[in-house]
Amino acid sequence: MSKGNLQQYWKTNLRYLVILLAIWFLVSYGCGILFAEQLNSIRLGGFKLGFWFAQQGAMYVFVLLIIIYVRLMNSLDRKYGVREE
Amino acid sequence: MSVQTWTFLLVGITFALYIGIAIWSRAGSTKEFYVAGGGVHPVANGMATAADWMSAASFISMAGLISFLGYDGSVYLMGWTGGYVLLALLLAPYLRKFGKFTVPDFIGERYYSQTARIVAVICALFVSFTYVAGQMRGVGIVFSRFLEVPINLGVVIGMAIVFIYAVLGGMKGITYTQVAQYCVLIFAFMVPAIFISIQMTGNPVPQFGFGAALNDGSGTFLLDKLDGLNRELGFAQYTTGTKPLIDIFCITAALMIGTAGLPHVIVRFFTVPKVRDARSSAGWALFFIALLYTTAPAVAAFARTNMIQTVSNAKFADLPAWVNNWKDTGLIELEDKNQDGIVQYVADKETNEFVPDRDIMVLANPEIANLPNWVIALVAAGGLAAALSTAAGLLLVISSAISHDLLKNAINPNISERGELLAARIAAAVAVVFAGLLGIYPPGFVAQVVAFAFGLAASSFFPAIILGIFDKRTNMQGAIAGMIVGILFTALYIIYFKFINPEANNAENWFLGISPEGIGTIGMVVNMVVTILVSRLTPAPPENIQDLVEDIRIPSGAGKAVAH
After folding, report:
1. From the list A24, A34, A48, which residue is nearest B239 (CB)?
2. Rounded Cα–Cα distance for residues B114 and B474 (Å)
3. Pairing verdict, β B332-334 and B354-356
4. Which chain A residue shows the shortest CA-CA distance from B72?
5. Confidence class of residue A60 from pLDDT cuts 50, 70 and 90?
6. CB contact under 8 A, B248 and A33
């Protein structure tokens, strides 16, 4: 792969990382910790929302984030022809 | 059948299974011994990683801990799962592409320095030994409580089992036993949780039952009921926190980053065939872990509600049998202080008459909920599976640090393949015996130190690995300075507040109000800043290292894990 292509691949990868990690930060540190108290005034069935994020929701989102990352990277690998066979 | 017969039966069957797998998957080469030949399926590796990761503490203590901490216990839930996102996105694929055997391998090669390698080996050994001692102790405790053998005999039996499959099979044997152990432990954790969820809320999914209404006819939500009970007895409300925000933030971050920096977790991603397998394997690992971790807070809430309703204001004479059974093991303290014949379970220590140990929330949970005997026995088999799988994973890191990083790469590079394999087996055997001794004669500080291993891993390994991948300019000088400053800062802060001046260990004296548990986060930031600054002030790394960094950033051509 040419130098320019490699840089493009790497840049796209970094962009994915920034977006996914921003969500990672938002659901755990944001909804689960920093804004938990405010969110607690909203209810999700028997849960207060901030408490739910801290003890359930953040973990579901973590699993989802990795699934999305794997899909994005697999198609990026194919697009730039760097997929291992 | 009695609980004890069931326990002997289930523990016996699972142990026979582990040994059978060990004999079937013997390691024939160093590559099989260190990284299972690099041929483990990503789903199997995900399960093995989950079992490796979830220790006796996750299985036995965590739900109990949350039960008493309420919202503040969330730091463990988010902290011990969120790190896998960092692992999947920032570490696993690149380290798999790098394709050697150990974490010190990467540090030593990326920073072209024997000193960096040795610093990494020492950090790896220190973190792993503190951890493994706790696991062996856990094995002994499960044996003594459920099978009524002395703790020390329990430790010796546990040592013998781990010895067989770790020394024979290396990573290959460990990986496939861990897959079996994951199945045992998750089954053992879920069955009582589902039973209790149905009993209390009528919903078979504990994650949903957690937020459902109680089925006692009142229509009150479980969590509202629990908040009310806690308030009545003078405890803090269950669903809101009492710790300062900044401390919750820093502890969560230290646990997350520490998870991503622990050598026995990282090394698991060297065992899959391809870079994309390393990515998906981290996803599978987190999925299998989240199954237990999203159930644990539900168990915590069920168990606490159940316990308060059973014990609070009950007559001493009418207490159920489990209270006295666990009182005999010393895990429940019970005293009728005001001699009125009624149990007062309240927050005020002066008048409180009931002191449960947090571990009984999982261990006694099936008894509290009146579940059948085989479920109680299952919990014992699950606790053992959790402790043994983690111990084995740690022992492998210790043995490879000694035989591969020290012997092969630092002392005698000309050692033959067979010589290195023999050395790895001897190192594993010695480590098993040493860990067993730590379990039999636990130094008083082990329990305290285990919790800090995360902070130490966060402040030493994590920045060196991340910057090694994402910043080409980071050089030997920067990485070594960063690791040493980071780990020293964190270790000294912990040692000062825990051992030198424990009276001063309170929020008023802490740096920015951050407790020793959370200080690893600051240590990590300090490490990063030092690494980047020193790297910019000293010469750039040589051309071939910059090429190496370019190379690990793209997946194609990962090949097999190559020997040096």
Report:
1. A48
2. 16
3. antiparallel
4. A54
5. very high
6. yes
- The answer to whether the Cβ–Cβ distance between B241 and A36 falls below 8 Å is yes
A70 interaction partners in chain B (CB closer than 8 Å) = 88, 276, 279-280, 283
Rg, Å, chain A Cα set = 18
Task: Look at residue B259 and give its three-state secondary structure.
Answer: helix
Query: CB atoms < 10 A from the CB of A43, how many?
Result: 14
For residue B190, give Cα distances in angstroms to B205, B375, B515.
10, 10, 34
Reference B531, options B161, B219, B111; nearest CA is B111
Contact A36 B550 (CB under 8 A): no
Provide the 8-state DSSP code for B401. Answer: I
| Tokens, residue B310 | 């059973």
Interchain contact, A9 vs B210, CB within 8 Å = no
Nearest to A40 by CA among B136, B70, B506: B70
Token look-up 């691949």 returns A9
Show residues of chain A in contact with B279, CB under 8 Å. Answer: 66, 69-70, 73
Three-class DSSP category at B356? strand
Taking each continuous run of H as one helix and of E as one strand, the counts in chain A are 4, 2
Instruction: Mark yes or no for CB contact B89/A45 under 8 Å.
Output: no
Mean pLDDT of A37-61: 88
Note the Cα B298 to chain centre separation in Å: 20
pLDDT at A5: 82
| B418 to B28, B105, B553: CA distances (angstroms) | 9, 20, 33
**Domain range annotation of chain A:** 3-80
- Provide DSSP, B461-488: HHHHHHHHHH-TT--HHHHHHHHHHHHH
In whole angstroms, what is the distance from residue B192 CA to residue B222 CA? 18
Question: CA neighbours within 13 Å on the CB side: how many for B183?
Answer: 10
- Tell me which of A2, A29, A31, A56 to substitute to probe the interface with B (most B C-beta atoms closer than 10 Å): A56
Do B278 and B96 meet the contact criterion of CB atoms below 8 Å apart? yes
A35 Cβ under 8 Å from any chain B Cβ = no
Closest among B338, B349, B343 to B327, alpha carbons compared: B343
Interface residue A63 vs chain B (CB under 8 A): yes
pLDDT attached to residue B562: 41
ipTM of this predicted structure: 0.94
What is the distance between the alpha carbons of residues B124 and B249, in angstroms, rounded to a whole number? 26
Model pLDDT, residue B325: 77
The shortest C-alpha distance from A50 to chain B (Å) reads 9
pLDDT beneath 50: ranges in chain B? 558-564
Q: How far is B283 from chain A, CA to nearest CA, in Å? A: 5
Q: Which residue of A has its CA nearest to B252?
A: A29
Q: What is the tens place of the pLDDT at every residue in B28-67?
A: 777 877 777 777 888 988 999 999 888 877 888 888 888 8
